[in-house]
Structure formats: C-alpha cells, structure tokens
Amino acid sequence: MTPDNVALFATIILLLPMFYFLLAAPAFLLVRLDVPTVAELLRGMFNGYFLALAVAGAVGTIAVAMAGRVVLAIGIGLIAVLAVSSRRWFLRQMDARLHDRDAGNADAVRGLRRLHWGGMLSNALQLVVVVGCIPYIAVAP
Asked: What are the tens digits of pLDDT across the range 76-128?
C-alpha cells in the first residue's frame, strides 16, 4: 500500500465517528433533557463519540506516521488529543449539570442543551476541516 492510500484510509477511519455523531446528535434536539434517562443517554453518546474519535485518531496517527507522512500524523494526532481533552471537559461539565438538575436547578437543563449544541458545533467544525483537507491528503508526498 502506498503512503497516499494509507493516509486516505486513516482519514476515512477518522471520519467515521464524526459522521456518526453528525447524524446521531441532532436527534437529542427533539427530546427534553430534564428526563434523567435521556440526559444519561446523551452523556453516554458524548462519551462514546470522544472515545471512538480518540482511538481512531491514535490508530490513524500511528498508521500515517509509519507511512512517512509526519505532518499529517501530527494533524491527526492533534485531533486525537483534542478528543481526549474534550471528553474530559465535556463529561465533567455534563456531570455538573446533571447534578445541578437533580438538585432542582432549572438552569441546569439549559446548560445541558448548550453543551449539546457546543458539542455538535465542535464536531461539525472538525468534520469540515478534515473533509476540506482530503484533496491535500490524497496526494502522494
């Protein structure tokens, strides 16, 4: 396999969790987040998304680095690092909002909704950047 094929495959693997989240996350806009099971499901979806993106990014980084595309490996690695740090931050924020909601704070549900919108926006921006880079990635070094 030539380095450009490895880079393209690594990029496609990186796009899979992003596309999944792009399709799955808007469904939570149709439900109320004051229902405990719905909010926990949203938290679980964020957790799974960030884990899948981090694993896909790590695998992609290693594969692309072994193929000799160092700059691309750094870019994919940055996405993996962003996923790990975002996971930690998002889950901490969601847990705080869930705790506040359970304590009777009415603003906590709005905070959950803002986190939801922020997560969707973050994913959309990353997706646009990665898809926009595909013509440059597919070219052999």
From this structure: 999 999 999 999 999 999 999 999 888 888 788 999 999 999 999 999 999 99
Write the DSSP assignment of the chain as a string of letters.
--HHHHHHHHHHHHHHHHHHHHHHGGGGGGS-TTSHHHHHHHHHHHHHHHHHHHHHHHHHHHHHHHTT-HHHHHHHHHHHHHHHHHHHHHHHHHHHHHHHHHTT-THHHHHHHHHHHHHHHHHHHHHHHHHHHHHHHSS--
Dist. CA 115–CA 87, nearest whole Å:
12
- Number of neighbouring beta carbons within 10 Å of residue 69: 21
Q: Which two tokens stand for residue 108?
A: 């906590």
Which tokens sit at 68? 């000799």
Tokens of 82: 């962003």
Cβ–Cβ under 8 Å, residues 59 and 14: no
Task: Kindly report the backbone phi and psi dihedral angles of residue 2, in degrees, each rounded to the nearest multiple of 5, phi listed first.
Answer: -80, 160
Alpha-carbon distance of 108 to 97, in angstroms, equals: 5
CB 76 within 8 A of CB 60: yes
pLDDT at 2 over 60: no
